[in-house]
Design a protein that fits this description.
Elements (H helix, E strand, L loop, with lengths): L12 E3 L10 H11 L13 H11 L6 E4 L1 H13 L5 E6 L3 H9 L3 E6 L8 H11 L3 E5 L11 H10 L3 E5 L20 E6 L12 E4 L2 H10 L7 H10 L3 H23 L3 E3 L6 E6 L4 H10 L2 E5 L10 E4 L3 H15 L1
Parallel strand pairs: 1-11, 3-4, 3-5, 5-6, 6-7
Antiparallel strand pairs: 2-8, 7-8, 9-10, 10-12, 11-12
Bound molecules: 4'-deoxy-4'-aminopyridoxal-5'-phosphate.
Length: 341
């Protein structure tokens, strides 16, 4: 099988991996350094990550028993597959979507049932019926906003999938803060639904590798049995807890990125480029007068790196562009104008 690759190249403008364009606030780093002085390095960390879970729970206004954290939301997804997938079980995905859903499923021995999204990348409920009816999956993955299309699933769609899915529904909200609504509002102890989140985007902490889910307490109890003991190191536990004290700063940054997304999409719309609507911190584009792969190489010549999806199934000729700082986005726009006009 193929591994998962996201090529990195040394460039001036890096808009390829949907990270935050700025580091966390300076006050956060100072407090983290201070707290690190007090760490008992010779002891194992708190296995239950009690304070971190409490902080995340408070942040979302839920009980800590509904929070499960791991090394990036990818490890949250892996733990879900290890717990509810595996040999003889099936996970459903609707393509195009985040490649790691099917990849992690396969790695854990879970069979993958693939549904197709409609031409405009929305979810067609007849297709949902077909896939869920045929495969009877133990896990159904949704991604909202969807990577790499940027589309947000509507509340009606998520409810409809919940009503039809025979097992667990996972809504991957790695980009949830940039979207107008969240499936977190649907999580409770009666519904087999989890919503996954990450510190890698909004919280400017991709380097820390920390993600979590909010779900029913009975499900979190099962995940705790499966994940390795002490999987969350002490530094990450402290960093994740402290970061949440900077909610106001991060809300301001999210609002600025959403505004910048609007500006970038409007400017892209003036060029011979198809642009999909986005509820995330990235936008999917397809040039109409030049091949996507060629555009990707020419942008690289301008020291601008975006994600090359041109050869991905169902995304022929497409590129995915992370929203950067206004200066980075201006550099992208200037390069695009020069190339495509
Ligand atoms: N889900 C989606 C949809 C993503 O795009 C990403 C990051 N590429 C992740 C999960 C993984 O994020 P992390 O492991 O950094 O939390």
């Amino acid at each position: 099988m193929e591994g998962y690759h996201s090529p990195q190249v040394e460039v001036k403008v890096r808009l390829n991996t949907n990270e935050a364009p700025e580091p966390p606030p300076a006050a956060f780093t100072e407090r983290l350094v201070e707290e690190l002085q007090r760490i008992e390095w010779h002891r194992y960390p708190d296995r239950a990550a009690t304070e971190l879970r409490q902080a995340i729970a408070e942040f979302h206004g839920v009980d800590p028993s509904r929070v499960f954290a791991a090394n990036g939301s990818n490890e949250v997804l892996q733990t879900l597959c290890l717990t509810y997938g595996g040999a003889g079980r099936t996970a459903a995905v609707f393509e195009p979507t985040y490649a790691l859903h099917s990849h992690i499923a396969r790695i854990t021995g879970t069979k993958v049932a693939t549904g197709e999204r409609a031409h405009d990348f929305t979810l067609d409920l007849a297709e949902v019926d077909r896939v869920l009816g045929d495969a009877q999956p133990e896990i159904t993955f949704l991604c909202s906003p969807n990577n790499p299309t940027g589309l947000v699933e509507t509340e009606d769609t998520v409810r409809a999938v919940l009503g039809r899915a025979p097992g667990l529904v996972v809504v991957d909200e790695a980009y949830g803060q940039f979207a107008p609504w969240s499936a977190l509002t649907l999580v409770d102890d009666r519904t087999p639904l989890v919503v996954t989140r990450t510190y890698s985007k909004t919280w400017s902490m991709a380097a820390a590798r920390l993600g979590y889910l909010i779900g029913p307490a009975w499900l979190v109890e099962q995940l705790d049995k499966v994940v390795l003991p002490y999987h969350l190191d002490v530094v990450k536990q402290v960093a994740g807890r402290l970061a949440l004290d900077y909610r106001r700063e991060m809300d301001t940054r999210v609002a600025a990125l959403v505004e910048e997304r609007g500006r970038l999409i409007a400017r892209l719309g003036e060029l011979p480029i198809d642009v999909w609507p986005s509820g995330a911190n990235f936008v999917l584009i397809r040039p109409t007068t030049i091949e996507g792969d060629r555009l990707w190489h020419l942008l690289l010549d301008h020291s601008v790196l975006v994600r090359n999806c041109a050869s991905w199934p169902r995304l022929e000729g497409c590129l995915r562009v992370t929203i950067g700082t206004p200066a980075e986005d201006d550099a992208l726009l200037a390069a695009l104008e020069e190339i495509v006009q």
